[in-house]
Write a structure and sequence with these properties.
The protein is built from 28 helices and 9 strands. The strands form 3 sheets. The protein has a 5-stranded mixed beta sheet. The protein has a two-stranded antiparallel ribbon with strand order 1-4. Strands 2-3 form a two-stranded antiparallel sheet. Strand 5, helix 20 and strand 6 form a beta-alpha-beta unit. It is elongated, with a radius of gyration of 28 Å. The N and C termini lie far apart (about 90 Å).
């Protein structure tokens, strides 16, 4: 309990007149509400927010255009097939290309296709988009914060903190589904707060067509929107418009869901939990680590697929957790009275995200991955909550320290340094996170580009991940493209990979002939150490399938040697310092009579 005398003293201190003109002006600039969203003061902080976003994007742009063979990590997985837009003959009968063409969000696909028709290659557009996505996200985040608490600095803080988090985690750099979800979802929240049913309808559709899980989170928000909470009590809104907005948004979401359900995938069904627990692909050393032994904390909080994934980067975002507490003390924090009633959208978003997180665990893999329902929305929640909490604390602090200008100036300076300069100072080269992959085998890419467009390449090398994007030719298997969620797709990849590993180390001509003829393989690319024992312990395929690693090691120790090893020199048609390209037809033609 706080003594009455202490409360009276606090009120007296907060009400004491300020005798320092500079600090008086500073308090006005920082904490005074601004009813006009187009005032010079508001526009100053708005454009300052955009300026910071551009400053974060510049290093990314420099990296993105630093090499001819460079691509964002996720883009080489989800966008490589879009080279078909400019050359439809690429990747004919390619299982991997067909799967990722069907897997990408339709809204993202249409967006890239439109620009491809305008002459902008998808892989080039992917490098240009992050700054655009960042600016739109910043603009709407500023607007959302300003609606909730009409103080321009709140909009600046919220948009800056969200931008720092997104650029630090590389979310916008992807410029695929996760990159598109932030501008569209922030727009959804803005139009919801403005009670624009047209805006909500359009943004619900955009979110759904770009990133389905966040649309479901938005549906949860719309369901809760007409409910007003008063402590532990609630009552339904008396505003008819709230029900119209909720109904329209949910109807649009249902239409998007029916669109997805009508687009039956040839690559289903989705893997079951029982089957996933038996496959090493979902183990700690697998392609998609999901199930861990004796790792409760990692599974529920840290794992990028199963956990909540709370991201407190920069660390000041943890302050957002205090907002519900601060809102309880209206007398101590006078600005609480200025907060829009729509601030309950933060609670709605939190409840919806957590509910869908646990629902996704119950229906594991049916609603994709549980973390996708919290990791993105919690970033938004923490950024907005922290901005409001900071303003409440700053306003109260300035009121209490009116007669202590040095302490006040120091407080403002410390807060400014922590917020603005923390990421670049403490993360240095890691901020912003660029996630770009630079292809190191330019000679190989040019060689493959000169081969027929129906060429199929088989390799266990990690370079298989880059060949479709840079070499523009099909690969039989690729670690990056071996997601095991859709069984109609992955069972074929799994069979291909195991057949290739066995053919890779076989000394039986019939096995090699059957492999080459079954999959119409033209080239086999070998790493220089592909037949050394260390390769079996380091290659990702063997780390995942340890039984096949043991089998391959046994074959290496036996006689005769593997066909690929004994015939490598004779059938080599191209080589770099690290890789050797072997003609698959040469292997079986030269040994057909053996």
């Amino acid at each position: 309990m706080i003594a009455p005398a202490t409360l009276q003293l606090t009120v007296k201190i907060c009400d004491r007149p300020m005798n320092f003109p500079i600090l008086q002006h500073l308090e006005k600039v920082l904490t005074q509400p601004e009813p006009n969203p187009y005032s010079p003061r508001t526009l100053f902080w708005f454009f300052l927010s955009l300026a910071f976003t551009v400053s974060f994007a510049i290093p990314v742009w420099k990296t993105a255009f630093s090499s001819e063979y460079i691509i964002m990590d996720d883009a080489r997985q989800y966008l490589f097939w879009m080279q078909r837009f400019s050359d439809p003959e690429l990747f004919p009968n390619d299982l991997i290309a067909d799967f990722y063409q069907s897997a990408i969000a339709p809204g993202v696909s249409v967006f890239y296709r439109i620009f491809a028709r305008l002459g902008i290659e998808p892989l080039i557009l992917n490098r240009l988009l992050p700054v655009v996505l960042g600016l739109v996200t910043t603009a709407y985040c500023f607007a959302v914060c300003f609606v909730l608490l009409p103080i321009p600095v709140v909009g600046f803080l919220g948009s800056l903190l969200l931008s720092q988090n997104l650029w630090l985690n590389g979310e916008l750099v992807t410029a695929i589904s996760t990159g598109f979800l932030y501008p569209t979802f922030m727009a959804f929240l803005y139009y919801l707060l403005r009670r624009s049913w047209v805006g909500v309808a359009i943004c619900t559709a955009l979110v759904g067509l770009c990133y389905g899980p966040l649309m479901l989170v938005g549906v949860g928000v719309l369901v809760l929107w007409p409910i007003n909470w008063y402590g532990w009590l609630f009552r339904f809104s008396q505003n008819r418009r709230d029900y119209i907005i909720s109904g329209v948004g949910i109807s649009v979401a249902i239409a998007v869901i029916f669109y997805y359900l009508s687009s039956v995938s040839e690559f289903g069904p989705t893997i079951t939990v029982a089957e996933a627990k038996l496959w090493p692909e979902f183990g700690e050393d697998g392609r998609v680590p999901f199930f861990y032994e004796n790792a409760f904390w990692s599974f529920w909080f840290k794992n990028s697929r199963s956990g909540f994934r709370l991201s407190f980067n920069p660390p000041i975002l943890a302050l957002g957790l205090l907002l519900p507490v601060l809102l309880k003390f209206r007398d101590r924090f006078p600005l609480v009275k200025q907060i829009n009633d729509g601030v309950t959208v933060i609670a709605d978003l939190t409840v919806s995200s957590i509910f869908l997180f646990f629902t996704a665990h119950i229906l594991l893999f049916k609603l994709f991955l549980p973390s996708r329902y919290t990791s993105h929305s919690f970033r938004i929640i923490l950024a907005i909550s922290t901005a409001i909490a900071l303003m409440l604390l700053l306003d109260c602090g300035l009121r209490k320290l009116r007669d202590r200008p040095k302490i006040t100036a120091g407080l403002i300076a410390v807060i400014g340094i922590l917020i603005i300069f923390y990421p670049p100072l403490f993360w240095k080269s890691a901020f912003p996170r660029k996630n770009y992959i630079i292809g190191a085998e330019s000679g190989l890419y040019m060689f493959l580009q000169n081969q027929p467009k129906d060429t199929v390449v088989a390799t266990l090398a990690i370079e298989a991940d880059n060949i479709p994007s840079f070499g523009r030719r099909s690969v039989l298997i690729s670690w990056e493209h071996s997601l095991p969620y859709q069984l109609g797709y992955y069972r074929q990849i799994r069979r291909r990979a195991k057949d290739f590993i066995r053919a890779h180390y076989t000394s039986d001509v019939a096995v090699m002939q059957d492999f080459v003829n079954t999959y119409n393989v033209d080239f086999i690319v070998l790493e220089n150490d592909a037949f050394e024992a260390e390769f079996m312990t380091e290659n990702l395929w063997f780390v995942q399938w340890k039984d096949l690693a043991e089998e391959a090691q046994e074959k290496l120790l036996s006689e005769p040697p593997p066909i690929l090893l004994s015939e490598r020199d004779r059938c080599t048609i191209f080589a770099t310092n690290n890789l050797t390209v072997v003609s698959a037809p040469c292997l079986i033609q030269g040994n057909s009579g053996t």
